[in-house]
Amino acid sequence: MKLVDDRGRWFGLINPLDLVVLVAIVALVFGLATKTKNIVSTTTTEVQFEGFFKKVHPELVAGLNTNEKLVAGGVFVEDARVESIRVVPSRTSQTNAQGETVVSDDPHYKDVYVVIRGTSKSATADLKVGNQEIKAGKEYWYKTQTMNLQGIVDSVKILPSP
Question: Which residues span the membrane (predicted)?
C-alpha cells in the first residue's frame, strides 16, 4: 500500500488539504467551546435579604403567607423562600397647629417586612434572586401566585457557603 495514491490521498483515505481544513474546524470548535464555558460560568451565593413594603392595605396583609412560593417570570422560584413576615403599623407624620411634627400610626395601612433567603446564581458580580437584582435601597417586587407588592430591599446579608 502506498503512502500517497494516484489521486493524492494519504493511505487512500483523505486528501491532505481536506485534513488541514478538518483539523482547523475541530480546533476552532474546541476553542470556542472553551471560551464560551469560561464566559458563562456562574457564581452561586447564598443571600438573605429583607424587603420593606410601605402602606399596604390590611386586606392584602391578611393574604400574606410564609409557605407561599415566590414567582418570577411566570414560573416558581425554586431557590428562594420566605423566612418570615413582620407586620407593623404604618407610621405617618403631620404638622400640628403649633408647627411641630407629630408622628402617629396610620389607622388604614400597615408596613410589611419580608425576610427572604435564596441562592443567587449570576455570571456577574451582582446578586440576583428570581431574576431580580438584590441591593439595599433597590426596588423589589414581592410576587407570589396570589400577591404582588412593590417595595425596596431594606438590607442584604451574604451567608457563608455550606
Answer: 12-33
pLDDT mean for each 10 residues of the chain (162 residues): 72 82 94 71 89 96 94 92 96 91 92 96 86 95 94 96 70
Cα within 13 Å of Cα(119), Cβ side: 9
Q: What is the pTM of this model?
A: 0.71
Whole-number Å distance between alpha carbons of 85 and 67: 11
**Rounded to the nearest 5°, which phi and psi values hold at 99?**
85, 5
Separation between Cα atoms, residue 104 and residue 93, nearest integer Å: 6
Q: Rounded to 10 degrees, what is the CA torsion of 12, 16, 20, 23?
A: 20
CB 52 within 8 A of CB 152: yes
Dist CA 123 CA 130 (whole Å): 14
Give yes or no for a contact between 80 and 70, defined as CB atoms under 8 angstroms apart.
yes
